[in-house]
Amino acid sequence: MARNRHPEETVNLILGVAFRLFMEKGYEHTSIQDIINNLGGLSKGAIYHHFKSKEDILVAVIDRMTAESNEMLADIRDSSGLSGEEKLKKIFRESISRSVQNDIFTVAPDFRDNPKLLFSLLHDTIDNAAPNYILPIIRQGISDGSIKTDYPEQLAELILLAANAWLNPMIFDSTEEESRRKFMVFRQMLQGFGLDIVDNEMLERVGELASIFQKNKQ
Amino acid sequence: MARNRHPEETVNLILGVAFRLFMEKGYEHTSIQDIINNLGGLSKGAIYHHFKSKEDILVAVIDRMTAESNEMLADIRDSSGLSGEEKLKKIFRESISRSVQNDIFTVAPDFRDNPKLLFSLLHDTIDNAAPNYILPIIRQGISDGSIKTDYPEQLAELILLAANAWLNPMIFDSTEEESRRKFMVFRQMLQGFGLDIVDNEMLERVGELASIFQKNKQ
Q1: Largest alpha-carbon pair distance within chain B?
Q2: Can you give the CATH number for the domain in which B114 is found?
Q3: Does ipTM top 0.85?
Q4: Which of A112, A122, A185 has its CB closest to that of B149?
Q5: Residue-number span of the structural domain to which B102 is assigned
Q6: How far apart are CA B166 and CA B183, in angstroms?
Q7: In angstroms, rounded to a whole number, what is the distance separating the alpha carbons of residues A156 and A109?
Q8: pTM of this structure
């Protein structure tokens, strides 16, 4: 394999292989050597040319995962012609319908073996996604009358944590039926803030993702 | 120190020292030798007489912490003359007012260094506290008209996870003011299920605990 000629491709290749191994074996149980063994001839030096350590690779893997999600969030946040409520609804629909979700749920990582991934997910939710993407939409919803709360920062956190952690079967194992019932309580919770954004199509998709996860979990 | 004469006292001593060290240094950074060094003359053999491994000690530490909390939950769950809503209110008030909370918040463990503790807390919440203590109370509340939901199992999970994880400054760092605002959103969330159980006294106490934590965090 040519190296340094297309450094971006090399980085992408490393991150793709690392992501798959972290998901399959767990971060703690994946060594740099495992990653090299799956890179078809790339040397240890070539990896260390791009990344200082395994933790460095993990950070880049997570950055790549969240970059894609953040782009979708920014597009919806900045779109015109939608109320705050409509934007939140669009975010939930797109989040669960993205095809990458099928891949992640098929690999079915157990977050108990990936505490660093879990912390990154939780802290990206609280420190980045909630204040930068959900908060401006909630503020808009308060202005346009579609969202009712005096505490937009905290509501942004609560909604995203419930969605990203509690409703995530990779963190809290749920059957297909339990996932639907959780989503129904999530709907009732949102209604308490004036929001009616869960529809039957979303319920079907949530059940489908839980079912993919259950079939494939290790 | 006499050993084997009072095995329960020895076990309590080990667990007390282990709890303090896990909190101060983190579970991963505490060795069996650290625990021995703080036990004033107890031998390694004496510890291994009671516990197979460090993980075994951790499990016992957590069991001791949750046993006290479970006793309180069971007392309230089984008490008579209170509605479901009143029982939940009593649980929240007692949970935050217990004096052991001051100790825990003074030691201020960072759960990022204690992933095993975090998982134990989250999974005890979902697998034990929610179904065994909160669920029967929510079912009672649905019967007596004080709680409105068709999904009691899932509501029990959502309420306890919000309370034990999101509102816990040791997991999600919050200032005193942020803690109060989170508790106000928690109040609004509960109102969506017919529950009006947060009062000003609780808000004060939540602010106080966050303030103790902020002063002492590492």
Answers
A1: 59
A2: 1.10.357.10
A3: no
A4: A185
A5: 53-216
A6: 10
A7: 26
A8: 0.82
